[in-house]
């Protein structure tokens, strides 16, 4: 029998929330062997093999078809796959892991409240400083797609490897694209979200890979999981 491979976050609150939502659906998600291991199962569905890996790895595995289903953030899916619409299917929003991908500028930029105004400032900045505005982010692809869609060209993406919200104060970027849940960290660092600067309202999704090796058995197992999760979310 062909087993369906399901990947879930390997640690932290995301793993706990995955376990909770599966429990509400009457499915017992558990690790096999060592508590710090990476293999698991669903007690009620022996035809499922569970892999515990990081959320970013889950998106990569879905992209390559190494797993059938995975629970990860939509932001990671969109960032890692320019062709996400054909490569994967967002089967179900799960109601946790909420985070917005946003464009944030220094709060002191009182005349910059929209992307159009940022475009005007970016042109003036290049004329004055001889270089483009620097945008610090971990979301390189999402940022470029959004800025291009808004008609901005006078900018340079700077990959952020640490705390993105601190880069303007450190002088390594003029503005940022980052995720936020409440906006408190941005405000604490003197930043403000543009009025039309919400790029993506992300949350955890159950995602299926269109490029994985599907068979009649794995299709049936996927449908069983979706049905259980639907009943579990409806009952909450």
Layout of helices and strands:
Elements: E1 4-9, H1 12-24, E2 29-31, E3 39-42, E4 45-53, H2 55-64, E5 69-73, H3 74-80, H4 84-87, E6 88-93, E7 99-106, H5 115-129, E8 133-137, H6 140-149, E9 155-159, H7 167-170, E10 175-180, H8 184-188, E11 191-202, E12 204-209, H9 216-234
Helix pairs in contact: 1-9
Largest beta sheet: what is the strand line-up? 2-3-4-1-5-12-6
**Cα shape:** elongated
- Low-confidence segments: none
Please identify which CATH superfamily of the largest domain we are dealing with: Periplasmic binding protein-like II
The biggest sheet amounts to: 7 strands, mixed
Helix content: 25-40%
Mean pLDDT equals 93
Which CATH architecture of the largest domain is right? 3-Layer(aba) Sandwich
Walk me through what this model shows.
The protein has helices at residues 12-24, 55-64, 74-80, 84-87, 115-129, 140-149, 167-170, 184-188, 216-234; strands at 4-9, 29-31, 39-42, 45-53, 69-73, 88-93, 99-106, 133-137, 155-159, 175-180, 191-202, 204-209. With 236 residues, it is an alpha/beta fold. Helix 1 packs across helix 9 (216-234). The longest helix has 19 residues, at 216-234. The strands form two sheets. The protein has a seven-stranded mixed β-sheet, sandwiched between helices. It is elongated, with a radius of gyration of 21 Å. The chain contains nine helices and twelve strands. It has two domains: 4-98 and 203-234, Periplasmic binding protein-like II (D-Maltodextrin-Binding Protein, domain 2); 99-201, 3-Layer(aba) Sandwich (D-Maltodextrin-Binding Protein, domain 2). 37% of the residues lie in helices and 32% in strands. It starts with a strand and ends with a helix.
């Amino acid at each position: 029998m062909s087993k369906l491979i399901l990947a879930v976050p390997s640690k932290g609150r995301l793993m706990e929330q995955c376990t909770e939502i599966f429990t509400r659906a009457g499915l017992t998600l558990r690790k096999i062997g060592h508590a710090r291991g990476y293999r698991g199962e669903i007690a009620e569905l022996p035809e499922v093999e569970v892999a515990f890996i990081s959320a970013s790895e889950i998106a990569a595995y879905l992209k390559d078809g190494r797993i059938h289903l995975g629970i990860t953030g939509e932001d990671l899916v969109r960032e890692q796959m320019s062709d996400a619409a054909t490569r994967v299917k967002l089967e179900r929003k799960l109601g946790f892991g909420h985070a917005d991908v946003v464009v944030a500028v220094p709060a002191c930029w009182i005349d910059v409240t929209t992307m159009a105004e940022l475009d005007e400032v970016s042109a003036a900045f290049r004329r004055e400083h001889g270089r483009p505005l620097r945008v610090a982010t971990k979301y390189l692809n999402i940022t470029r797609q959004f800025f291009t869609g808004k008609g901005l060209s006078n900018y340079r993406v700077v990959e952020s490897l640490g705390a993105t919200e601190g880069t303007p104060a450190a002088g390594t970027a003029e503005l940022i694209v980052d995720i936020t849940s409440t906006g408190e960290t941005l405000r604490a660092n003197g930043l403000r979200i543009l009025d039309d600067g919400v790029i993506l309202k992300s949350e955890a999704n159950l995602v299926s890979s269109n490029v994985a090796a599907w068979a009649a058995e794995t299709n049936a197992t996927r449908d069983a999981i979706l049905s259980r999760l639907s009943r579990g979310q409806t009952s909450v």
